[in-house]
Amino acid sequence: LKWKDPEKVLGHVCGVQIGDKFKYRVQLKMIGLHCQDQCGIDYANFNGLNLAISIVDSHRYSNDSGSSDKLVYSGHGGHVGPKFNGGDKLKPEDQKLEKGNLALKNSMDRKTQVRVIKKVVGYDKDDMFVYDGLYVVDDYAEKKTAEGIIVFKFYLNRIPGQPSLQSMLKW
Amino acid sequence: LKWKDPEKVLGHVCGVQIGDKFKYRVQLKMIGLHCQDQCGIDYANFNGLNLAISIVDSHRYSNDSGSSDKLVYSGHGGHVGPKFNGGDKLKPEDQKLEKGNLALKNSMDRKTQVRVIKKVVGYDKDDMFVYDGLYVVDDYAEKKTAEGIIVFKFYLNRIPGQPSLQSMLKW
DNA sequence: TAGACGTAGA
DNA sequence: TCTACGTCTA
């Protein structure tokens, strides 16, 4: 269920608070938080431009985030990341600035909000997807891995004024 | 939900008739017809011996069945079959007589019943999983593909006396 | 048709 | 940890 008006799609989802937890990706889809079954980057076409709507950080790629209000999110594609289906049997390839990667770049250009869902490992003996709130893509870079493969890195910053994930999670 | 007694596990499932249709694999699991999410061969350990319980023919491997009461079912493993996840990017390898393949062989030796579910393509504009009834594994062979890869073929025959799938499906 | 930061069982 | 005859979107 998607609309062409960014104002009705981007940003928070009605009824979902920061810290809300979900066990399955399909639940994120059902409530409209992240409308992709497996893909980490959801996006839609708004008046001819693809903008990112939400991303899920499941730690399948190497997203070395520093502080809690910064997030480094890897682009998708290229069979990058050690936990991919097919594992290390698939040869890594250059990632391309297309699909979700391009949408994230467009979101950077337009400074639009992106919802972030993080997979929290070992919460209450289980892994959970947790809504972390809204971020903005401030920068991106083409990195080269040790094998010489191009991988995109998107640098997101959490929009200030939101309650911290820690406080909402109540560990 | 599995028991150690083959008589309570093998054979028909209470309430499920030949020709019953299901859209999703998970439905087969919920009613106990085939308790695997993705794997085509379900089996369990009965007094130390793994026996096949049910198989799903989704046509991902090349199962060239002849008549309607015969079924040639390919073993699993080895990244065989053109419709595999990862597609043709994964190198095919020899299949091994283990897991589901071994269970099917054991079922052959013991002449135990195996439930068969077939994916029917284009039924009522949709693909459906249809319960086809009970078969027995009569033979198996190690085949070599054109690339020299070992693939198992299990030759199953439908147990006589069951209503035909055609008659129960009411095309 | 191919790709995707899934998911459960062995 | 790895596999597996899935399943949806683009």
Automatic annotation (TrEMBL), chains A, B:
Subcellular location: Chromosome; Nucleus
Organism: Tagetes erecta
Listed name of the protein: YDG domain-containing protein
Residues of the full protein shown: 253 to 423 of 423
Coiled coil residues, start to end: none
Domain YDG per the UniProt entry, residue ranges: 11-158
